Amino acid sequence: MNNERIYEIAFHSVGEGGPGGDAITIIYEINGQKVLDIVDCGTIEAGERIVERMQEDHPGLGVRNIVCTHGDQNHLSGLPTIIEELGAQNVYVNFPWHYTDEATSRRLKSNFKTLAEFEKTISNLNVLPAIQGTEVGLFTIMTPSEDRYRELAPVMDEKPSVIGTAISRAAEAVVDLVPDRWDTESL
Q1: Domain that holds residue 46
Q2: How far is Cα 80 from Cα 4, in angstroms, rounded to an integer?
């Protein structure tokens, strides 16, 4: 981090009860210019709250990068509002049907309707795969590898816990790399 400075990392509430979801905003400075990255966009309501907060607290700050970790509705539904109101230079997202045969592709599109609808509207965006090793702003995507994603794609809608298990294992591996001590915060 030579000329970079992180200003804010915010974890946004994605509703009460029901299935959880995520929306994280990261504001940092590169060479004197503030930029905004977003990891997941939450529900429609969460997306609206993120837009309101950014316009109120950081007027004029557009989105540089959006990373969609996966295509569940509670992680993705706020995306159209955020893009419409704040813009986005780059969107990192994986479409599982790009990694499968035609029959499986149809099934996946049917079961990930929000993600499939989003794909239809992105012709004017710079869309890139969210694959291990991809650098997004100050951060690097840790998982999944392209090979692992190809392996998981055909069963993503059948076994949702497969993705959670893969993410949990990756997180555990990263945590094991960072020594935990009482006098330092390693999160």
Answers
A1: 4-177
A2: 29
The DSSP symbol for 90 reads E
The enclosing H or E element of 71 equals none
Q: What is the CATH number of the domain that holds 60?
A: 3.60.15
* CA–CA separation, 100 and 121 (whole Å): 21
Residue at 67: amino acid letter: V
Say if residues 9 and 37 touch (Cβ distance below 8 Å). no
- Tokens, residue 131: 């694959």
Count of beta carbons in the 10 Å neighbourhood of residue 135: 9
Residue 125: both structure tokens together: 């965006």
DSSP at 187: -
* Rg of the chain over all Cα atoms, to the nearest angstrom: 17
Q: Is 60 exposed, middle or buried (0-12, 13-18, 19+ CB in 10 A)?
A: exposed
* Interstrand relation of 126-128 and 135-136 (parallel, antiparallel or unpaired): unpaired
What is the model's pTM? 0.79
pLDDT along the chain (187 residues), means of 10: 76 66 86 92 90 95 93 85 94 95 94 91 90 93 93 80 56 58 52
